[in-house]
Amino acid sequence: MKQNNLFLLGLALLSFAACTGQKTPKSLATAWQKQHLQESDSLIRAVASSNNQASMCLSSVFNSTTLKNEVAEYERRFSGNPVRGSWKHLDLSTLPIPQANFLSKYGREIGDLADPESIDYSGCYDLPCIFNRIYQKESDYIAGYVHYLWYLKFGHYLSLDNKVPDQKSPTPGVYNNKQFTVLDYLYDEKELYGLWRITHLLVEPYISLTNTREIQRIPRKENLEGYPMGVCGLASSAGHIRLQDGCLQVHNVNQDRGFLYLGVIHEMTHMVDYLQAQQRKNGGWYRSHEQDYLDIVGFYKVEYTDANGKLVSEWKLKEGAKTIRSYAATSPVENFADTLAYFRQEGEETKSKIDARQYSWISSNYFHGESYDKVGNRTRLLKKYESAFTSQILPKVMDCSSTKNAYQSNYFSASDFPGATLTPWMLKCLSSEAETMANTITARVKTYEADGCASLVFREDQLAWSDAVRDSLRRSFGVYVQEIANDPEYLEKVKDFNNTLKDPFMANEAIFQCYKGSTKDNLKPCYDTKVVEIAKRAALDLKLPDDQATEMSELYLRSHTYTEVTEKLYLSYRTIISAHDELIRVESEDVWQQCLNMPHNDDEKHSGSIYTPRNGYLVSSFFNCLNAQLPMTLQDLVRSLEYEGQRITHPVEELIVLEFLEPRVVEVIREFHKEAAEFEKEQLGSHFEEISGSIKDFLLSDFGWVKSLTDRAAMMMSCRMEALGQIDFLPLYHLKRDAFSELVMQGPCRDIMSDPAFLKFLESSKEKVDREVFSKVEMTLTKKAEERALYCKEIIPWKWERTRVTVRLPRKGCMSLGWEDVERAVIEELLKDPLSQRFKISESDFRSKISEVRDAVREKVEEKHF
Amino acid sequence: MRLLFIFSLVMITSCGAQKSGPNYGKTTVKELLTEKGEPTKEELIPVEDSKVLHFDGGEKYQVKNDIVTNGYLNPSKEERNLIYWKHAFKDCDVVTQKLTEKQVGHERPEYLMKCDALGKGVVYTEDSDIVLRVVEYEAK
């Protein structure tokens, strides 16, 4: 019967694969996962080797052995062509792919950047050793492994250098105008533990932050440059996070509390916020600015232009809105980062403080429906270990059904399995097996799970946990005990199905079928239904009764939860892409060169959105060329990716991989752009020097560009515009106006008004100058009168309850009182004008001109402001 | 040269004028409502005789007495890139103002880059290449 069932199951899976095969080809991820993903066991081994499992927590196994094993597990997932190139004494092709990738990408950004040769890396043949040299520690020190694990898990790195992104000083090692050593920028052991724990706390979307490059610690005891002491972290959309001491504090005996967890996750959540807005393509810069989130929290924006013409743009929170802490009330962006960080680390507090709608929204959109309060942790951990132990329960029930051994456990009693007939030996056997499993589960949870010890601090929590484990085991054992009574062949059938439990094919297929354009959309509800549907179809093909097929499909879902499946799926894409980094660089450079070599202009509009320079400029012909070429380049690249000879043929898989590939290609192009812009900047100065003289000659040869003889600012602007018009050179990476304005103003236009040729031109225009000088009287009087009017408005403010009429009269009185001062100020300003002095215009000339326009100006200003 | 500048500004204005909008400083509230329909909300602001009218799609218009003075709009697809505006304002004397006077926590400050000759400005966040908001007003 068993063989018969196996055959049927195989046939069913084959027919399923064949049926779906035409529409949905094999996925590259499934092939990769079958080869590389096994149950992570480094921590389990650490627990098993300990003598005192019950009192252990995650912090108990924080040592280089555990870390090294974990590294080995991650590294096993990488395969592909060796990376070419070298780093110092190392031939990169001899290193594991992720280590070689790291050194190839970031090798010039580690260590003492002020004196790169000051650290001796000789004798190091792996990345952790290199990192540990920067720490001035032995090659086996924990720091090297934590830094490397962070990179393996998240794809970006914890910096180990003395140059903080965006620091004010161009010199590495100088921060806040003080000198620091590289060691001041590195993490201490508690911080390293906290960061390692975070690698265990976070799952999707945090492990796919393709917009993040590095997390940099600033020197110990320093404030972030330009920010007050309370600011302990900054996330930049340019791809970096900066951390200060305040965001790196870890405390309590198990080291699982402290602001490090909140601070670091907060900053990483900002990156999630940026990235998701980009991926969702709804046009915003932050996911948290989308209307659904604003409505859920109660944020709205007030924007208007104030009486002085200044734009006011402020976030307000509806009265009664609940936030996790006052800081989260400052803006949607901070609310989003803060609430998600608290949600993950301080679940119980978050549940009690924020609105239930927001709590549920965060859970379903960012944590796959999980929560991290006490009940949530218990449920999630139990679910996870239930599925891990499911496959062990069946053989144990089978063994116990025929045992004659004398077991001593009273974990279960006969009343736990009503309706089943159990021999006393079988009951004792099941009890003993279940009790052992319960102890193992608890030890694993406490040691393997980042939330384990934190969830089991109090006696009542421990009791609740033990009850929940016992209840879960009773149900799991009970299903099989009951089914044996109903159908003696049942166990065989389930056992056969167990063989398919490890196959991720159906799980990945469910993700593909649910995908609607972005991996950041919440696919979980669809996945949970779809995967059961697919697995049930496979089970029904075995001619099993409907209820047993349902049971099996649910078993499959429990073994392939959404969180785990997506994490593995996205990990496989990140790894495959990472293994092809050299190809990506070559193809990206190719498209860059093609676009560079075409003729350029800056006349067209900029169009396209794949590549956009974050800062700086790119002429439109170049920009449009890149954006026109990139879709094809990306598609070619996706189709070139391979794993063991297999390429992507699944249409949905192609779309998902594009999501992961595009940011990397954009990052590479940004590097080319940055380098080219720096080179061009150097060229601009020397080019301008060559033409500066001829521009000045041109300006002095014809003063047709002078539009106003009396307004110095306008004259300088005309000079600048005319000079810019004389420059034929078109910078590709700088806006022509920005590139040359300063040079023009400091060069040909600088002293042009004192040049003899200009003065001669001015003399010849005396009549016109007189006219223009006097024409300034009305303008200056209006300006000064308006200043007085604004002052009067300020001291006699308008309030909601007053009408306009009740404030007008006192304000007019205020104007009268200060009018003499207004006129005096006007005359003083006009007399200072070099042209007034040059042409000897007197105070009385101006007074007489003022009297001609006084009444009209005052009336106009009062009407406008009062 | 001056003619060329004015011509290019006119071209930009006309290219950008695909969406019909108010003539700031002239359009009356009645004319605005004829074009946009009834506002979803009216918001009082601390500016004399002024209020802000909200419309669907995140559009807001500030009015003083009976005249529309400012518009606050979401950027269209191509207008979302800051580089689009750098190019659009390339012949303009651009002014950039920091909007966030008081640093709120560690959020990046917002900036307004505006071209008075066109009566347009864009709000963006420091570091970003994405335009958050388009601001319109009477061209000077």
What would you note in describing this structure?
The complex is a heterodimer of chains A (866) and B (140). Chain A has 5 domains: 1-36 and 488-575, no CATH class; 45-285, no CATH class; 576-678, no CATH class; 693-751, no CATH class; 765-865, no CATH class. In chain A, 60% of the residues lie in helices and 5% in strands. Chain A is built from 32 helices and 12 strands. In chain A, helix 9 crosses helix 11 (332-345). The relative contact order of chain A is 0.07. Chain B is of the alpha+beta class and 140 residues long. Chain B has 3 helices and 8 strands; from the N terminus they run H-H-E-E-E-E-H-E-E-E-E. Helices cover 21% and strands 31% of the residues of chain B. Classes of the chains: A mainly alpha (866), B alpha+beta (140).
What class, by secondary structure content of chain B?
Answer: alpha+beta
Inertia-based shape of chain B? globular
Biggest sheet, spatial arrangement of strands of chain B: 1-2-3-4-8-7-6-5
Count of individual helical segments of chain B: 3
N-to-C order of helices and strands of chain B: HHEEEEHEEEE
User: Helix content range of the residues of chain B, please?
Assistant: 10-25%
| First and last CA, distance of chain A | 97 Å
Q: Give the N-to-C terminal Cα separation of chain B.
A: 19 Å
Backbone CA Rg of chain B: 16 Å
Main beta-sheet strand count, sense and barrel state of chain B: 8 strands, antiparallel
> Helix/strand-derived class of chain A?
mainly alpha
Query: How many distinct helices of chain A?
Result: 32
Low-confidence stretches of chain A: 1-24, 37-52
Oligomer: heterodimer
Measured by residues with Cβ under 8 Å of the partner chain's Cβ, the largest interface is:
A-B, 56 and 56 residues
Question: Can you summarize this structure?
Answer:
The complex is a heterodimer of chains A (866) and B (140). Chain A is mainly alpha-helical.
Could you outline the blueprint of secondary structure elements for this entry?
The complex is a heterodimer of chains A (866) and B (140).
Chain A: H1 2-21, H2 28-36, H3 42-48, H4 64-75, E1 86-87, E2 90-91, H5 97-106, H6 127-134, H7 142-154, E3 157-158, E4 174-175, E5 178-179, H8 189-201, E6 214-217, E7 233-236, E8 240-243, H9 259-280, H10 291-297, E9 299-305, E10 311-317, H11 332-345, H12 347-353, H13 356-366, H14 374-401, H15 424-448, H16 452-455, H17 459-486, H18 490-501, H19 505-514, H20 524-540, H21 546-559, H22 562-579, H23 581-596, H24 620-640, E11 642-643, E12 646-647, H25 651-701, H26 712-725, H27 736-746, H28 756-763, H29 766-795, H30 804-832, H31 834-838, H32 843-865
Parallel strand pairs in A: 3-6, 6-8
Antiparallel strand pairs in A: 1-2, 4-5, 7-8, 9-10, 11-12
Helix pairs in contact in A: 1-18, 1-20, 2-22, 4-7, 6-7, 7-8, 8-9, 9-11, 11-12, 14-15, 14-17, 14-18, 15-17, 18-21, 19-20, 20-21, 23-24, 23-25, 24-25, 25-27, 26-27, 29-30, 29-32, 30-32
Chain B: H1 2-16, H2 29-36, E1 41-44, E2 50-54, E3 60-64, E4 67-73, H3 82-88, E5 95-98, E6 110-115, E7 120-125, E8 131-137
Antiparallel strand pairs in B: 1-2, 2-3, 3-4, 4-8, 5-6, 6-7, 7-8
